[in-house]
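Working notes for the structural subgroup meeting. M.R. asked for a predicted model of this chain before we commit to crystallization trials. I am recording the input and output together here so anyone reviewing the notebook later can reproduce the run.

Input as submitted:
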Amino acid sequence: MLSLGGILLLLAGTGAVLVFHGVAVVFALQMPRLDPAPATLPERRSRVSAVIAARNEEADLPGCLDSLIAQDYPDLEILVVDGGSTDGTREVARARAPRVRLLEEPPLPAGWVGKNWACHLGASAASGEYLLFTDADMHYGPETVRRSVEWAEAEGADLVTLAPRIETVGFWEKVVLPFYTQMVLTYFRTPRVNRANSRAAMANGQYTLVRRAAYDAVGGHARIRGAVLEDVRLAQELRSKGRRLRVAWAPELLTTRMYRDRHEMFEGLLKNVHGLRFSAARQTGFLVALVGLFWLPLGLLPLGIALHDPLVAGVGAVLAALLFVKHVAFTAGARGPAAYGLLFPVAVGFYVVLVGASIRRGVARRPLLWKGRTYPLDPGEGPGDAARRG
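Returned structure, recorded in token form:
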């Protein structure tokens, strides 16, 4: 049987676990949703320029461009900025001229991350009153651009960002990506971004609509040229200047398959976890939190049985049941196969390996590798910026 000190420690730990997971549930319930709806905008509408940073996107770009071309928004400019692709990316864009305009990147300047350079070039060439920064692996319902502009106008928002439905095909996608969405939701306190008095700030680079005037006022992508999580940094810059942000889940308007296999998913999520400013203390804290908040509660039931302690076993049984129910619900809510939520301890293990790899690479000062480019670790990204959606 536990001593009084042990009981107090057990209760304190149980409370911390319940609070953490309860907050994630509350955030999920608070998350606003944007769905298709009849048009509400007047006939004269603001011009939107969609900017797609593309590097070796031959497989995904056709579906992305075709669904953008099919938008019911009448004044939409589409620009593809090619970052030195070695596949057929340019040909895909050229085949859709004149609706699609292709821009060729000059060589990447020192201090710039490739996507930021492409977005900067695209924004410089764009003529829209709104800039839509989006990714080549996105598919859009025909109302997507119109609905996001309508929401921006109705809310007086300077930035509107949408979260898509993530298609999961392979085993690891089905196990890891619902857990990833939960981590993003919790870390960034996502629904609180919509509060005027909140300091929370985030955006999703898969679909970020920003007013051109607000973008220019904060210095655009030139201001955040060295940030890996450029979407979050742009939102933070806007928030710091008192601009209004809005975020919503839009599963009927946007879909994506983020990663094609386990290796690509590992490298993509590692990029987001690692960032360019490495902190061993931060990463170690992340690792401890993963183990303490997700794995340790599951060990209480077998520990209580082994110790013949009904209190420990009872608390462990309740926590295990709550955690499994929560992750099944999250997986189903993310439109994944609900049963894969039962494998959330495997997803936690994936992240444990991910953070361990980040620590090893950071201690060795190894550069970050993404999209065939390497970026040395430097102070170009703040310590709170390395935890997002790939």
